[in-house]
Amino acid sequence: MNSSTRQAALITGGSSGIGAIYADRLAGRGYDLVLVGRDADRLTAVAEAATRHGVAVETIRADLTKVADLRRVEERLRTDGAITVLVNNAGIGAAPGLADADVDALEQMIQVNVTAPTRLAVAAAHAFSAAGRGTIINISSALALAPELFSGAYSGTKAYILNLSISMRQELAPRGVQVQAVLPGATRTAFWGPAGDHLPAAMVMDAEELVDAALAGLDAGEDVTIPSLPDRADWDAFNAARGRLGPNLSRQHAAARYGRAA
């Protein structure tokens, strides 16, 4: 891109893991970067690595559980016309189980995984719609489709992101805004920590391969990208089955199978 047409991508959770790979790949595509994260040193390291692509990189140290920090990032999205890509990547996990969970930790997770990306998506949707262009990439999880495999609270936050993305895509596509949900499986990053070491190697994808696949899905116009899914038709069939439920999800009377007389 030349200087008169430069565009920027804002990436949350940009200091490591998936966010850092997105930073490298989008910089390689010519995007200037705004990297958001809690660790200033790691942000600086990612920023310095990205500048080898000849782009400008700014870092914003922010904790998305803090109202003032979150509002500062929202304002940047609303007012910086150069930003045309939002990568909603920041997230935290939770230990399996609910009965013995630390409810304060769960609340913090919901703040980072649900509240923050929602507010940032709204800010981006407003700005991008006004400009008639833009891309919102929401990082969900394959666990959004498999709540019984891990923490129901965590998978619930990721199911929310998937639902939000599908709805946003329908709303924003006519306004020139592309929305993609990415559903990674287990990924070789610090996010998984020691837990990832106990998973079969065949289940764990390198972050670089994950992001490259996600960007290929974006380029192909996919609304939902599951990087490890061999056959796209499986998702299409799942989505079609979900759609067939639609006419029967809200009716005047209960189904006869619940004992109501015909």
Q: What is the compact description of this entry?
A:
With 262 residues, the chain is an alpha/beta fold.
Throw out a few tags for this protein:
about 260 residues; 9 strands; two-stranded parallel sheet; 7-stranded parallel sheet; NAD(P)-bd_dom_sf; alpha/beta; 8 helices; Rossmann fold
Fold and architecture overview:
This protein is of the alpha/beta class and 262 residues long. It has one domain: Rossmann fold, CATH 3.40.50.720. The chain contains eight helices and nine strands. It has helices spanning 17-28, 40-50, 67-79, 103-131, 152-172, 193-197, 207-219, 232-245; strands spanning 8-12, 32-37, 57-61, 83-88, 134-139, 177-182, 187-188, 205-206, 224-225. Strands 3-2-1-4-5-6-9 form a seven-stranded parallel β-sheet, with helices on both faces. Strands 7-8 form a two-stranded parallel sheet. Helix 1 (17-28) runs parallel beside helix 2 (40-50) and helix 3 (67-79) runs parallel beside helix 4 (103-131). The radius of gyration is 19 Å and the shape is globular.
Tally of domains: 1
**Gross CATH architecture:** 3-Layer(aba) Sandwich
Integer average pLDDT: 92
In percent, how much strand structure appears in the residues?
Answer: 15-25%
**Gross morphology:** globular
The low-confidence parts are none
Number of strands: 9
Q: Treating each run of at least 4 consecutive H or I residues as one helix, how many helices?
A: 8
Main pleated sheet:
7 strands, parallel
Strand order of the largest sheet: 3-2-1-4-5-6-9
According to CATH, what is the topology?
Answer: Rossmann fold
> What is the oligomeric state here?
single chain
Please name the fourth-level CATH homologous superfamily: NAD(P)-binding Rossmann-like Domain
Q: Kindly state the percentage of residues in helix.
A: 40-55%
Briefly note the structural class of the backbone.
alpha/beta
